[in-house]
Amino acid sequence: MPNPMDPQKILVTGATGTVGRQVVAELVDRGHTVRALTRDPAKARTALPEGVEVVQGDLTDPPSLVPALDGVTGLHLITFDGPYMAPLETGAQIVELARTAGVRRVTVLHGGGPTPLQDAVEASDLAWTVLMPVEFMANALEWAGAIRAEDAVGEPFTERLSAMVHEADIGAVGAVALTEDGHGGQSYVITGPEVLSLKDKVDTLADARGRAIRLVGLTPDEAMAKWRAGGLPQDVIDFLIEVYGNTPPEGRTVTGTVRRVTGRPARTFARWAAEHAAAFRV
To answer: How far apart, in whole angstroms, are the C-alpha atoms of residue 43 and residue 55?
Structure first.
């Protein structure tokens, strides 16, 4: 049984995504060997820390994973693929390849609902952990253009609440689950340390960038028209209206998962805003 203090080799899929790159960074910080799976190795190498092994592969083509799985003890998986985020249908093949390769632990980034890949992982005898983050703090970057241009954020359902999570904390929980025992068979709802309103978020960003920001309330119809003009597909728009208008309790309740799993408190939105303040300045 590997000692979590000893270096382990972990394969990370979706390694250049919002969460994937944080899983990679945390594993590297902890001294583990990271192999990143990507369709475009040349592009990925520029986005990942020095020392990460970048290999070519495609989750829609399971045999392409065989070389990448060689010597790997942990595997981080995403459940969607392609420009339209279609659920992966290759879960059973991927799980079997992982078992054959000797993978012991698997983390799955939950995609918002049941998927064939997650179902296959949960039905396996691998030590699996499902990562279920609520709203990413990084989603605030979607406001950057409007804030720089108009000093304003236009959103519907302005009274909605969120326990939004720093993406680095998702990566930290994932890294622990991939390298330490005791997390198999667990589904972790991952949140930040506080519940925030839209006004709280906007005011925090204003403090970080040193300039006031107005919160402009939109009707649902106005919001849908704005998102449609921005190129969002209708299914995404429908999802946003539903989750913003009726945020489930999981999305607005602090869980404490980060502290329990990693041993340190979750990062605040004020910290995230300070780290990204330049994106909101002219």
So the answer is: 11
CATH architecture of 9-133: 3-Layer(aba) Sandwich (3.40)
CATH no. for 135-165+191-252+267-282? 3.40.50.720
In terms of pTM, does the model score above 0.85? Answer: yes
Distance CA 142, CA 80 (A): 21
Is the Cβ–Cβ distance between 138 and 169 less than 8 Å?
no
d(CA 267, CA 201): 14
Task: List, for residues 193-243, the tens digit of each pLDDT value.
Answer: 999 999 999 999 999 999 999 999 999 999 999 999 999 999 889 999 999
Q: Cα-flanking dihedrals φ and ψ of residue 161, to 5°? A: -120, 155
Q: What's the rounded Cα separation, in Å, for the pair 32 and 125?
A: 24
